Amino acid sequence: LFPGLGPKSTAMLQAAGITTLAQLQALGSVQAYILVKRAGCKPSLNLLWGLEGAITGEHWQKVARHHRTSLLLALDQAERESGPAP
To answer: Which of 41, 43, 44, 49 is the most buried (most CB within 10 A)?
Structure first.
């Protein structure tokens, strides 16, 4: 369903109402991560790397090495704009 994501990550996405890869792609990894947090889940940043990997086709560890800073900055900005998740 979501390339590279395991059952726990998939369950967190489903709890946030994200059930298809197309939905994940439309939202983007940062917004999907925020929705997972708002759904009451407690994801680690590894989920953010995994979400980006599912969208781009890169392994989550490669995402963490090469895109960590840009994703963290985008997450920080998105949370500041919308308020932090509870």
So the answer is: 49
